[in-house]
Design the sequence.
């Protein structure tokens, strides 16, 4: 018997952690992981609302979010590898030239 | 059932099943050494006990008393966690495997598995996919090039073959319409055309069965897909820097995974514990268990047989085979099965 | 019982997320994210979404995060160097703004819940029901995501493919030029 608001509070807290990581971290891989954390937080609120509204469409949306996250991870990590190959760094502050 | 009794029964069942698995593990190793020896025209272990039957105990004692060396250049916390993770995940997957029909005892229906959850198959897939971390992190945290190469190979190989593994099971899932392993086995009881058992392998999943076996061999890092620990090129692969109990945890994890794969193949494709049951009531309880054990033993024998026969793949061949042959075939299997199920229903 | 489980795994979740921020080494961050995802799967189970929980473990923890760890291993990424210049304005404005955002988000989300209560197992999401929804009501989005995945695969292959020789020569020349200037 857990109030739905607890789940939503947890979701908001995780989302804030994700934003903080996205803004504070300098390693491009960690920034990327913060984005995954935010997506997870959103998934939790989807499932919580699905339980509140007695509508499983919320759970179906989680699958779409997961598919998009997987696609994003594949492309994003490929970009990270390409960046590392040309710049030899993962620090986003040093990847500020718009040329090779 | 009250919470206390529930926890007690769960604890007893987990305790029994973990011990049974450890014994099965020990004698799988013994059987592997023995069969491999005979394949290569030698005897295998013979000295300790009759037919070398006490050899696993001797091995265990040796590994326990070996010095646990930790090289100075490793990344300590992850180096310690990795083998534990691999072993725990390999043991967890046995929790949902039913080994016989439910037992009627003292008025209770006791299912012969630790827990019957309605997403049993997904649970096993999930736990297996977490098990990849054990090997990948072991390779990375060892801070040594052979271990690193082994870990990289293992993670790439296991991600690649996991896709085919999951897709090869979907054929069975389409036919049974359930993730519960109990349910899947119940649907395979009986015969069709009077004499052919109603097992999934005979009901159109023949192809899916072989896809599953190939993907599962790669997933458990066994010959011919044992590149992560290729001893002749990587000196042991991901567990190069491990010794004593930590090494044997990886060893146990690998064999537990083999046993899980054998159990899963039996449950999904070979009808689980179904088989001819005759005689007095006591045999009605014991025979299904015996059939199940026999089928699992058959799979483990094939594992050893393949190890004694096949050479190792080259790495690019392994990746090309996984993505360009196995995955399309698995998708084809799903499409054809779905088509037939839709056609006949 | 459920409330206890909720609090335990919520604490693990938040702890993992904060550890993700605190750790310097990307592999530690990745592992704490795996912990967050696994405990989120337990929260899904408490909400009665067992299929989502299983898929969460298989896809997120088992595939996406393994990919992350694979890339960290491949690039042999070390600890991030301690950030050099941090602007004072960013600290003075950004951190309070983050706090305000946190308060607003928690308030906005929890206000939606009213007083409703989740009962585990009351509304199970059996795979059959979800499949029916996915392949009837949401068929078009499903097909669109499959196209998206195809595009992502092609993009990943193109981006991660080894450099073409003439391209590589250009980069080497540019790097040599930079070295000469400095």
Sequence:
């Amino acid at each position: 018997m857990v109030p739905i608001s607890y789940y939503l509070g947890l979701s908001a807290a995780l989302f804030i952690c994700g934003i903080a990581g996205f803004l504070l971290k300098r390693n491009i891989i960690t920034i990327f992981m913060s984005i995954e954390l935010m997506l997870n937080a959103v998934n939790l609120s989807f499932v919580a609302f699905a339980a509140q509204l007695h509508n499983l469409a919320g759970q179906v949306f989680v699958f779409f979010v997961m598919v998009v996250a997987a696609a994003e991870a594949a492309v994003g990590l490929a970009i990270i590898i390409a960046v590392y190959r040309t710049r030899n760094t993962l620090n986003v502050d040093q990847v500020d030239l718009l040329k090779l | 059932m009250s919470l206390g009794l529930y926890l007690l029964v769960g604890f007893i069942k987990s305790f029994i099943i973990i011990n049974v698995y450890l014994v099965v593990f020990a004698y799988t190793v013994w059987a592997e050494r023995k069969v491999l020896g005979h394949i290569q025209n030698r005897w295998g272990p013979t000295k300790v006990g009759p037919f070398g039957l006490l050899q696993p105990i001797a091995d265990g004692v040796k590994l326990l008393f070996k010095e646990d060396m930790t090289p100075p250049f490793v990344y300590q916390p992850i180096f310690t966690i990795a083998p534990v993770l691999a072993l725990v995940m390999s043991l967890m997957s046995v929790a949902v495997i039913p080994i016989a029909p439910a037992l009627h005892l003292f008025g209770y229906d006791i299912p012969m598995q630790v827990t019957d959850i309605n997403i049993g198959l997904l649970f096993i897939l999930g736990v297996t996919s977490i098990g990849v971390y054990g090997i990948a992190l072991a390779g990375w945290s060892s801070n040594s090039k052979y271990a690193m190469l082994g870990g990289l190979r293992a993670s790439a190989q296991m991600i690649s073959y996991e896709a085919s593994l999951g897709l090869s099971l979907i054929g069975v899932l389409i036919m049974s319409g359930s993730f519960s392993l109990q349910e899947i086995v119940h649907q395979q009881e009986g015969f069709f055309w009077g004499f052919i058992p109603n097992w999934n392998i005979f009901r159109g999943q023949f192809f899916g069965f072989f896809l599953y076996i190939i993907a599962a061999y790669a997933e458990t890092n066994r010959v011919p897909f044992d590149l992560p620990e290729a001893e002749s090129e990587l000196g042991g692969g991901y567990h190069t820097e491990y010794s004593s109990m930590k090494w044997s945890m990886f060893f146990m994890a690998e064999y537990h995974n083999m046993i899980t794969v054998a159990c899963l193949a039996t449950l999904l494709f070979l009808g689980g514990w179904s088989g001819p049951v005759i005689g007095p009531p006591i045999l009605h309880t014991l025979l299904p268990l015996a059939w199940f054990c026999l089928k699992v033993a058959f799979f483990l024998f094939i594992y050893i047989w393949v190890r004694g026969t096949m050479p190792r793949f080259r790495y690019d061949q392994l990746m090309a085979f996984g993505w360009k042959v196995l995955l399309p075939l698995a998708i084809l299997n799903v499409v054809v099965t779905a088509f037939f199920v839709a056609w006949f229903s | 019982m459920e409330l206890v489980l909720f609090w335990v795994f919520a604490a693990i979740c938040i702890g993992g997320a904060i550890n993700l921020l605190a750790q310097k080494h990307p592999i530690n961050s990745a592992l704490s994210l795996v912990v967050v995802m696994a405990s989120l799967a337990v929260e899904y189970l408490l909400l009665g979404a067992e299929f989502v929980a299983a898929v969460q473990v298989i896809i997120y923890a088992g595939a996406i995060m393994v990919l992350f760890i694979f890339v960290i291993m491949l690039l042999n990424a070390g600890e991030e160097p301690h950030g050099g210049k941090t602007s004072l304005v960013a600290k003075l404005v950004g951190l309070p703004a983050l706090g305000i955002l946190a308060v607003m988000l928690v308030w906005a989300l929890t206000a939606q819940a009213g007083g409703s209560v989740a009962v585990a197992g009351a509304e199970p999401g059996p795979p059959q029901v979800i499949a029916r929804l996915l392949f009837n009501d949401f068929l078009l989005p499903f097909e669109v995501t499959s196209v998206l995945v195809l595009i992502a695969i092609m993009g990943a292959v193109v981006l991660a493919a080894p450099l073409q020789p003439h391209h590589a020569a250009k980069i080497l020349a540019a790097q040599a030029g930079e070295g000469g200037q400095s």
